[in-house]
Design brief:
The protein is an alpha/beta fold and about 210 residues long. It is about 40% helix and about 20% strand. The strands form two sheets. It has a seven-stranded mixed beta sheet with strand order 1-9-6-2-5-3-4, sandwiched between helices. It has a two-stranded antiparallel ribbon with strand order 7-8. α1 crosses α4.
């Protein structure tokens, strides 16, 4: 019964997202930054905050990207999003910082050994605090010599969920804005990294610039 319920909810979610996202216009900026990074001989870690997860997910559903992986929580509340990502032909790394975190890190390190790999991650997921990155994701990127690119997202009209992350859900007939940053400049080695202050500043400044642009 539970599987049937999740299946039906998944279908409903797909239909709702189709209407909400397809009735919006899309404005993409900085995509050339991402394309240049793909051409480099280094893996990519695409970073966004959990509150903007839906925009980024649907963008990659529309624009099929090779070698793209996403970290998906094993929590039962995340099962619908996991099904959506899988339906978008995005490879899944199952787990989170609170459930199977060590296993996720090992999977990410293995995947990022391939210089063509792209791993998308919500750095503050799955339970926050909002807009504060987890230390292990930052260390994993540096260990893998991955290019850290922020994907910042918003829309001119949206609902805001009453969740810890205040998830944005676009209203129809607006404009969705997606911006890809240039790769973050990293000078520290893994042994130097004690906190995520620099990563937080980078991701938050990119998102704040986008939010203030309209």
């Amino acid at each position: 019964m539970k599987k049937i319920k999740i299946f039906l909810l998944s279908i409903m979610m797909h239909l709702c997202f189709f209407v909400l996202f397809r009735t919006n216009r899309w404005k993409i900026t900085g995509y050339n930054n991402f394309q240049r990074a793909v051409e480099n001989d280094c893996p990519i870690m695409l970073c966004t905050w959990h509150c903007r997860l839906l925009y980024a997910s649907y963008f990659f559903k529309k624009n099929k990207t090779a070698n793209l992986w996403a970290v998906a929580s094993t929590h039962k509340d995340s099962e619908l999003i996991s099904r959506f990502l899988k339906g978008a032909s995005i490879n899944l790394i199952r787990g989170s910082s609170t459930r199977g975190g060590n296993n996720v890190t090992k999977q990410m390190l293995t995947i990022l050994e391939n210089s063509q790999s792209i791993v998308a991650i919500t750095n503050d997921g799955p339970k926050g605090p909002p807009r504060v990155a987890k230390l292990e994701s930052y260390r994993t990127a540096i260990k893998s010599n991955a290019q850290i690119i922020a994907i910042s997202c918003n829309s001119t009209n949206f609902w805001q969920a009453r969740s810890w992350d205040k998830l944005h859900i676009p209203k129809p007939f607006g404009t969705i804005h997606i911006n890809f940053s240039e790769p973050m400049k990293i000078k520290e080695s893994v042994s130097d990294i004690k906190n995520t202050d620099k990563l937080n500043d980078f991701l938050n400044s990119q998102l704040d610039q986008l939010d203030q642009s309209f």
